[in-house]
Amino acid sequence: MKIMVSACLAGENCKYNGGNNRNEKVLQLIAENETVTVCPEQLGGLPTPRIPSEIRNGIVTAKDGRVVDAEFRAGAARCLEIAIREQPDLIILQSRSPSCGVRQRYDGTFSGTLTEGLGVAAQLLIENGFHVVDVEELG
Ligand code: SF4
Questions:
Q1: Is the CB of 132 under 6 A from ligand 1?
Q2: How would you classify residue 96: left for phi > 0, otherwise alpha for psi between -120 and 50, otherwise beta?
Q3: Is 5 among the domain residues?
Q4: 23 pocket-lining for ligand 1 (C-beta < 6 Å)
Q5: Which domain holds residue 81?
Q6: What domain count does the chain have?
Q7: 15 lines ligand 1 (CB under 6 A)
């Protein structure tokens, strides 16, 4: 099986704050399967560390008010290109991210409030028929 995973789950320090979301279940899957790692926000040209962003009224906006929608959507498009090239059987993405979130995301108020909805990369991958799961769905 070939898998594609959010790079931060694999332990890469690509989170907005320069850290990662290292996940032992994901590391086990990486050890057992051919793996491609992607960080949509870095692929979109954003630096690490970076100012955190949330989706507000459908537009990705950084906490300082700067609109970063174009960078996020460019990164999502790069992820889709990689997925089309690599044809992963399963894509595992980090929860609640404005790029990678599969089930929920923050509501755009930077208050820690969650809402139903997808990150922009997750949405694009699902719309194009890929099998995408939230890392919290792993058994
Ligand atoms: S964009 Fe995705 S892969 Fe990159 S740090 Fe955020 S959650 Fe992780």
A1: no
A2: left
A3: no
A4: no
A5: 20-137
A6: 1
A7: yes
Half-sphere exposure of 50 (CA within 13 A, CB side): 20
| 54-107 pLDDT per residue, tens | 999 999 999 999 999 999 999 999 999 999 999 999 999 999 999 999 999 999
Atom of ligand 1 nearest to the CA of 38: 3
Q: What is the pTM of this model?
A: 0.97
**Local confidence band at 139 (pLDDT 50, 70, 90 cut-offs):** confident
Residue 9 belongs to a domain: no
- Among residues 61, 130, 126, 132, the alpha carbon closest in space to that of 92 is found at 132
| Residue 108, domain member (yes or no) | yes
Answer yes or no: is the C-beta of 100 below 6 A from any ligand 1 atom. yes
> Which amino acid, one-letter code, is at 5?
V
